[in-house]
Specification:
Elements lengths: L2 H6 L11 E2 L1 E6 L3 E4 L2 H6 L2 E3 L9 E6 L13 E5 L3 E2 L9 E6 L4 E8 L6 E4 L8 E4 L1 E11 L5 E4 L2 E4 L3 H4 L10
Parallel strand pairs: 2-5
Antiparallel strand pairs: 1-4, 2-3, 4-13, 5-6, 6-12, 7-12, 8-9, 8-12, 9-10, 10-11, 13-14
Length: 179
């Protein structure tokens, strides 16, 4: 058995049968979510569903750059609940969520309670993003799975392939001539 077969958790030949999650958007700039247009969604590859997850209840976001490190890396996939909660109910407190604030901005944040009813603190998950304190939110959706890029498999028109990590895309370091 090859390493590819083990990490994909899909026996050879079954990847064509495995369902995929739609890629709904990309995360950039330390946690801001950019939704894909309908055309981009049709062109985007599907993310192969990990075994045991409810395909009908989750959607995928891709981390598009390195601005979310060290928490999320480029190519990582976040699977979140398709259904949203109005506002920020108490069951969201302490969890990482996709959040739409009162001004319409969508981001990835941890939800913390405040003293003011109907308002929450949106805690940035990365060092280069700012916390947003005492904010009203339109809706929240809990992130259920952070899937590292090295484990993600996507389905394209030409087959199934791995998402490469940054390390695989970097130029090799120059060799030392001292011997």
């Amino acid at each position: 058995m090859s390493v590819e077969e083990v990490t994909s958790s899909t026996p050879a030949g079954l990847s064509r049968l495995r369902p995929t999650f739609p890629l709904m958007g990309r995360i950039r700039n330390g946690g801001s979510v950019e939704w894909l247009s309908n055309h981009e969604k049709l062109q985007a590859p599907g993310v192969l569903c990990p075994p045991g997850l409810a395909l009908d209840k989750l959607e995928a976001l891709e981390v598009a750059d390195t601005s979310c490190e060290p928490v999320f890396s480029k190519g990582d996939i976040l699977l979140y609940d398709k259904s949203t909660s109005s506002g920020a109910p108490a069951e969201m407190f302490g969890h990482r969520c996709v959040v739409k604030d009162e001004k319409g901005a969508i981001s990835i944040r941890q939800i913390k309670p405040t003293e003011t009813a109907g308002r929450v603190n949106l805690i940035a998950l990365t060092p280069n993003a700012l916390h947003e304190l005492d904010k009203a939110v339109e809706w929240t959706s809990r992130i259920r799975l952070h899937w590292p890029a090295e484990l993600v498999r996507i389905k394209t028109r030409t087959g199934v392939q791995a998402v490469k990590s940054d390390e695989a895309n970097q130029e090799p370091s120059p060799k030392s001539d001292s011997a």
